[in-house]
UniProtKB/TrEMBL annotation:
Pfam families: AA_permease_2
Gene3D superfamilies (alphabetical): Amino acid/polyamine transporter I
GO cellular component terms, A-Z: membrane
This protein's name: Amino acid permease
InterPro entries, per database record: AA/rel_permease1
Transmembrane segments: 26-45, 57-76, 88-109, 151-169, 176-197, 209-229, 250-271, 325-347, 377-399, 405-421, 433-452, 458-476
Keywords: Membrane, Transmembrane, Transmembrane helix, Transport
Cellular location(s): Membrane
GO MF term list: amino acid transmembrane transporter activity
Amino acid sequence: MFGRVKPLDAILATAEKKSLHRSLGAFQLTMLGVGAVIGTGIFVLTAEAAQKAGPGMLISFIIAGFVCAVAALCYAEMASMVPVSGSAYTYSYAVMGELVAWMVGWALILEYAVAAGAVSVGWSGYVVGLIENAFHIDIPDMLVRGPYDGGMVNLPAMLIAGLVTWLLVIGTKESATVNAVLVAIKITALTLFVILSVPVMKMEHFEPFAPMGFAGIGGAAASIFFAYVGFDAVSTAAEETKNPQRNMPIGLIGSLAICTVFYLLVSSGVIGSVGAQPVMDAAGKAFEPGSRELSHACSAINDQAVVCSKEALAWTLRQIGWPQIGNLVGLAAGLALPSVILMMMFGQTRIFFVMSRDGLLPEAFSRIHPKYNTPHFITILTGVFVALFSAFFPVGLLANISNSGTLFAFAAVSVAVMVIRKKDPTRHRPFRTPALFLTAPLSFLGCAYLFYSLDVKSQMLFAIWGAIGLVVYYSYSRSRSYVGRGIIDVHEDDAGAPDLPVPPLPGME
């Protein structure tokens, strides 16, 4: 079962041909991480976290940030040893064999496609709120919310997913300048929010601090984990880093520390200015976020609670007397989030592409369009699923399902880095995880804890997805695998890879 290992030397042979200039210092790495991490999660999931944990979501941000930090250190050692495309999938193939690699790749497919759906729904919430408040019109909930969320279909989310799919098929390149501007817009909007909301905080809004107890804080941490994904952009820059042993930990921990402080300031501004207590039923039990029941309860109180909002930060600013700035924050989200959807769908097509070239998925998945030189078949297929996810499911459920795939992949990398340290201790490692046999188990246990804290629906859906993956592997992929057939054809130098839009910040979440 674990016998089919893709030889690490074969993978590295081509990687060495394209070694990159080592130019990144600790400051550049830290800024890369901040730009890659800050985004969708904090804009969209603040209301979700408040409904699960109340003001206790402050602790949730710290827990999720810590798990990411130890996972990032494990990721960095693998990324510095195996600086090739395919990320956790390739690492697992080289260390733990084909079946584990297949399950990691299968989990990453779930992560990217569902995350793109979650960001599409988040974008829809901000853009609809902006249109309604700027033009004083009321758009029917039936057309901008899915059936779980008190509506029928989320048309704006479908629209943006379709638009991004079209851009990916025609191969529009997103320039570094545009990306830098979008990162600046996101950070400026959040900084403005902190400046306006923190001075009007009232300490009584922090009581009770943990209305749902520690279970609520853990559940919120499992959702908020979505707000940190993207730090692997720093890990994968290992081969471009000067003195990686010193600079990688500074870049990883530094960027995560800055993002955590930023997130704590933003969430404190929400809690302190307008309050963030969960909406509860008559028995004192909090309604499930993104449910019809919560939607009905919110209608009864005229949506006068931050947990009822689909655009928590813009709504908060309007409540504290800054309606035009609230609209600007909505505009910033509307401008910046489509690039994140593009990143997610790009990552999805690249994972499919690498798995297809290994023979584990049909050749059609790596078929290139004759005119646009992009993998059009798999891009359109991905786009259809992303549009369907975003049309019918609430953002919180999508984020949790995506997190389940991410946590599985990170846990696998935590194990892989320990296995290869034991199996191949003399191999050159530009970066070595500090105190590995403490850090890696902490990372694995942290991922397991957050997975355990996810809602049962997300855990069940992940289990079903995993079972489907095993069926596909044993009925199709195992017999067609190139490694299984003795064909060691290494493509990790991306020879023949499609001309896809390659944004400068991989994983910009």
